[in-house]
Write a structure and sequence with these properties.
There is one protein chain. The chain is mainly α. The chain has 7 helices and no strands. About 60% of the residues lie in helices and about 0% in strands. The longest helix is centred in the N-terminal third of the chain and has 16 residues. It comes from Candidatus Macondimonas diazotrophica.
Length: about 130
């Protein structure tokens, strides 16, 4: 079985920052309706463009190579339960196929994304030291 090729340290840093961002009182992300590439996420996140944590997370994700971004999305989907450990290749293929230039916004606008990424890591035997 193939496992994700990822830098656990980078994912753990993102998890920490995503928790910080979503813990802020002013951040209210509704459950998405429709495809994750819809513009609703951009509208919601537009209010947070000046937030330093938001910008930091966005820069880190935007600086990842496209295959690394797809790995991050697929890892989140596994952690969320959309795919199982044995479906990793399918999740990665779908994340690659569905990729857009707004991966950071998609992840930032996903409620509980930090928990999903942590669970995805745990699925493959990785964990972040808290």
């Amino acid at each position: 079985m193939e496992t994700p090729d990822l830098n656990t340290e980078t994912v753990c840093t993102l998890i920490t920052r995503l928790k910080e961002f979503h813990a802020k009182e002013a951040v209210a992300i509704p459950e998405p309706e429709g495809d994750w590439s819809d513009d609703w996420a951009l509208q919601v996140l537009a209010d947070h463009e000046d937030d330093l944590t938001y910008r930091e997370v966005k820069i880190v994700i935007d600086d990842l190579e496209p295959d690394q971004q797809a790995t991050l999305v697929a890892l989140m989907w596994v952690g969320r339960g959309d795919y199982g450990e044995r479906e990793w290749t399918e999740a990665l293929t779908e994340a690659t196929r569905s990729a857009t230039s707004r991966t950071a916004e998609y992840l930032l606008s996903t409620p509980m994304v930090a928990d999903y990424l942590a669970e995805g890591l745990a699925t493959f035997g990785h964990r972040c030291d808290d």
